[in-house]
Automatic annotation (TrEMBL):
<feature type="transmembrane region" description="Helical">
    <location>
        <begin position="82"/>
        <end position="100"/>
    </location>
</feature>
<feature type="transmembrane region" description="Helical">
    <location>
        <begin position="53"/>
        <end position="73"/>
    </location>
</feature>
<dbReference type="InterPro" id="IPR005275">
    <property type="entry name" value="Lfuc_symporter_FucP"/>
</dbReference>
<feature type="transmembrane region" description="Helical">
    <location>
        <begin position="145"/>
        <end position="166"/>
    </location>
</feature>
<feature type="domain" description="Major facilitator superfamily (MFS) profile">
    <location>
        <begin position="15"/>
        <end position="408"/>
    </location>
</feature>
<feature type="transmembrane region" description="Helical">
    <location>
        <begin position="234"/>
        <end position="255"/>
    </location>
</feature>
<feature type="transmembrane region" description="Helical">
    <location>
        <begin position="270"/>
        <end position="288"/>
    </location>
</feature>
<feature type="transmembrane region" description="Helical">
    <location>
        <begin position="385"/>
        <end position="403"/>
    </location>
</feature>
<dbReference type="GO" id="GO:0005886">
    <property type="term" value="C:plasma membrane"/>
</dbReference>
<feature type="transmembrane region" description="Helical">
    <location>
        <begin position="325"/>
        <end position="346"/>
    </location>
</feature>
<dbReference type="InterPro" id="IPR020846">
    <property type="entry name" value="MFS_dom"/>
</dbReference>
<keyword id="KW-0812">Transmembrane</keyword>
<dbReference type="GO" id="GO:0015535">
    <property type="term" value="F:fucose:proton symporter activity"/>
</dbReference>
<protein>
    <submittedName>
        <fullName>L-fucose:H+ symporter permease</fullName>
    </submittedName>
</protein>
<dbReference type="InterPro" id="IPR036259">
    <property type="entry name" value="MFS_trans_sf"/>
</dbReference>
<dbReference type="InterPro" id="IPR050375">
    <property type="entry name" value="MFS_TsgA-like"/>
</dbReference>
<feature type="transmembrane region" description="Helical">
    <location>
        <begin position="181"/>
        <end position="200"/>
    </location>
</feature>
Length: 412
């Protein structure tokens, strides 16, 4: 890897700054979902396995919205794609108001699904946009840098969720009123961000990385998909992303349960520790971005995946602070996985990069399917549930380990 290559072209600084902000915004939303998971267990009397539907609603939206977002991006470009994502994000947040009034778990799931459709759209747009704002050789570092601010949003999400939501548990006030008010504020913030971005100039030249689809025929799209699916490194990246986000979704969904049941913390205190674990994720992304100047991204990915296999083994023992420290450490090693898998999967794809991005975003559905499965085990033992993510991290390790061979066989 050429460490001297330009990290970012100067003319794209304004656009890049806003892209970084987008990563921050969806970091807040994703980790707030894990706070809601625990809160709904207490306030709406749902089981751990059923509360896992919170993650299914959010990450399932990625499977539903991934391809449509990719098509919208190719037809209308980056700017309109971002505006669509922000609109859906705000709409879902505003739906929390009637959901809280109705005290309906299913209504909350619908609101989360629509909100997450916005997140899926933003991810489909933001990752390839960050990739094309400089040289391809530095795209790994650029996406990891953006994801570091996604980690910052992840720190703030559970922190404000713990303060405004979990702190009210068991009090005389309506616990869902806090949820409603918080998401009302979030909706207005995202709406304001969309209004500001409307006036940001996104160079039309950036859209030249994709073909004009206004006159595309179905058979051309089929040919494009066939060409894309012939790329072994891309296919493995989609699989690795599925298992990677599956591990993330399960680990985060029951973190607060682990703190409450194993460490005997209050939900609020466990929520603050969850925020600390996301701070470790953010630190890991900054450290990982720096290490990639000296260690190839796929090697670093394999090393971090093996480290998390060890961490999960320790967590599953339920050995007090030792296991809890390992649970906190999972996020440090998890840090680089999503952005690195994403950027490695997009390598050498040329004009197919935006279409590839939509499929990689669809891989995020793993984060929705895994928490209910872990919840079935967590209903009996939350510690033993952490054996399951080991399978996921072994898949991520295999992707990093075999990546050079996959690229060599790629049909460019």
């Amino acid at each position: 890897m050429n460490s001297r290559a330009n990290f970012l072209e100067k003319r794209y600084r304004t656009v890049f700054s806003f892209v970084v902000t987008l990563f921050f915004f969806w970091g807040v939303a994703l980790t707030l979902g894990d706070v809601l998971n625990r809160h709904f267990q207490a306030e709406l009397n749902v089981s751990k396995s059923r509360s896992g539907l919170v993650q299914l609603a959010m990450f399932g939206a990625y499977a539903v919205m991934g391809i449509p977002a990719g098509i919208f991006l190719k037809r209308f470009g980056y700017k309109k794609g971002i505006l669509l994502g922000l609109f859906l994000y705000a709409s879902g947040a505003f739906l929390f108001v009637p959901a809280a009034d109705a005290r309906s778990f299913n209504f909350f799931l619908l609101a989360l699904f629509i909100l997450a459709c916005g997140l899926a759209t933003l991810e489909t747009v933001a990752h390839p946009l960050a990739a094309v704002l400089g040289e391809e050789s530095t795209s790994d570092r650029r996406i990891n840098f953006c994801q570091a601010f996604n980690g910052l949003g992840g720190v703030i999400g559970p922190a404000i969720g713990s303060f405004f939501i979990l702190k009210t548990s068991g009090s005389d006030q309506s616990d869902l009123l806090a949820v409603k008010n918080l998401y009302l504020v979030i909706g207005f913030v995202i709406l304001l961000a969309g209004m500001v971005f409307f006036f940001v100039r996104v160079p039309s030249s950036l859209n030249s990385h994709t073909e004009d689809t206004r006159d595309s025929l179905p058979d051309k799209n089929n040919l494009r998909d066939k060409r894309l699916f012939s790329q072994n490194h891309f296919l493995f990246a989609v699989i690795a992303q599925f298992f990677n986000v599956a591990a993330q979704g399960g680990t985060w969904a029951y973190f607060i349960n682990y703190g409450h049941e194993v460490m005997q913390f209050t939900d609020e205190k466990a929520g603050y520790f969850f925020s600390l674990s996301i701070a470790m994720l953010m630190a890991g992304r900054f450290v990982g971005t720096a290490l990639m100047r000296f260690i190839t991204p796929f090697h670093l990915l394999a090393i971090f995946a093996l480290a998390n296999v060890v961490m999960c083994l320790i967590v599953a023992q339920g050995a007090g602070w030792v296991s809890f420290a390992a649970l906190l450490s999972i996020n440090f090693f998890f840090s680089i996985m999503f952005p690195t898998i994403f950027s490695l999967g997009l390598k050498n794809l040329g004009k197919d990069v935006q279409q590839a991005s939509s499929f990689l975003v669809m891989g995020v559905v793993g984060g929705g399917l895994f928490p209910p499965l872990m919840g079935l085990i967590a209903n009996h033992s939350v510690t033993k549930a952490y054996y399951l993510p080991i399978i996921c991290y072994l898949v991520v390790f295999a992707f990093g380990f075999f990546y050079p061979r996959l690229v060599e066989r790629a049909k460019v």
